[in-house]
Amino acid sequence: MKKRAEKRRIVLVPLPLQGHITPMMQLGQALNLKGFSSHNFPDFEFVTIPESLPVSEIEAFGPVEFLIKLNETSEANFKNCIAQLLLQQGNDIACIIYDDLMYFSEAAAKEFKLPSIIFSTTSVTHKVCCCVLSKLNASKFLIDMEDHELQNKVVENLYPLSYKDLPTSGFGPLELYLELCKEVVNKRTASAVIINTTSCLESSSLSWLQQEFKIPVYPLGPLHITASVPSSLLEEDRSCIEWLNKQKPRSVIYISFGSLALMETKEVVEMAWGLYDSNQPFLWVIRSGSESLPEEISKMVSEKGYIVKWAPQQEVLEHRAVGGFWSHCGWNSTLESIVEGVPMICRPFNGEQKLNAMYIESVWRIGIQLKGEEERGGVKRAVKRLIVEEEGACMRERAHGLREKIKASVRCGGASYNALDELVKFLNTE
Ligand code: UDX
């Protein structure tokens, strides 16, 4: 590794949400290990882009509108931040790497003639879907989505993806979502794209994107294997590991819906009853401030399970007692589960989660997809299928097969390992 004094810095611009901060920090750590610098933490320096949207306005926006406004209003503030950094610490910035939802960053890179790279923290298939969506004429597409024949049609060159799989709902009006997609897939003057995936998971989508973008695409994931770094915004309750230590191998179903998803109390209660009736031990993350479980039900289910507000998820998934993961299918959770060879029950909520669930169930065949809210009988049935029955054992076997392929891809000479090396070479020549 080069001495710190010789290291060049990289500016990373994450979307300030847990599921996006984590992969960005991991990417920073991976590059740091390859000789690029930052300062503390132990090698990161944090700079805040001043807020540009009044809190009162933020509260009135839906998520998509918020992101569009955030990009509109952050451009000037971010340019000031970069100007300050260049002034204080000299011209040693090798590159600006930004989350594809923080596309305002590109203007500063252009103004200060700095190379820039887009980082897509979700799957490459999701990126491809955004490209497809932004190509479709927005108003025509809105009408066509009523057409059942079209919905079941495979998107050209993208088998097994059909039009109904394109992520379009859950975050407010479709028109606005299409507007955001258009911005997200606009590569502007960026020199390359980094994706937190690996070729053995999504090879056809990767080829599609490479052809479409005509700039280098680096699939160097899953980054949490290459460069683990503490990035949790909430305090992890480690007592669940002691509880897991007392459970039988592969008997526990771990339940977590990431950092954002919200459920109605009615669904939580049905889940609690279904879990209780399944007779399988379970570890359940119920975030504070989210859905709540009535006190008496909480007491009752605690006989068979363990509830925490936030878990050390990767450690949980690694644990020998865990036999399945009931997930909302956020991309980080999906990768973390596959890497530990844990099969899944999929309960997608919004964004690209439905797309990830489709891949889990139908492409990699390592999980069961729920069609939406389940009553207690459906919950019990899904848990049994995954943890106890032969069907679940086959999914576990396939998940283990994928795990081996992924681990090979991050080892010296593997596809993701090579992609990271190529990225570093690219950064050193920019
Ligand atoms: C968001 C979007 O919802 C998701 O669709 C997108 O793919 C990424 O951004 P989030 O919903 O938080 O993310 O889900 P996910 O991507 O799975 O990330 C959650 C992260 O929090 C994971 O890294 C997971 O390990 C961590 N986590 C979750 C914990 O550490 N403890 C917990 O108890 C729950």
UniProtKB/TrEMBL annotation:
Family membership noted in the UniProt record = Belongs to the UDP-glycosyltransferase family.
One of the record's GO molecular function terms: quercetin 3-O-glucosyltransferase activity
The cross-references to Gene3D superfamilies, in alphabetical order and at most eight, read: Glycogen Phosphorylase B (3.40.50.2000)
What is this protein called in UniProt?
UDP-glycosyltransferase 76E5
Q: Name one Pfam family in it.
A: UDPGT
What CDD domains does its record include? GT1_Gtf-like
What top-level branch of life does the organism fall under?
A: Eukaryota
Q: Which UniProt keywords apply?
A: Glycosyltransferase, Transferase
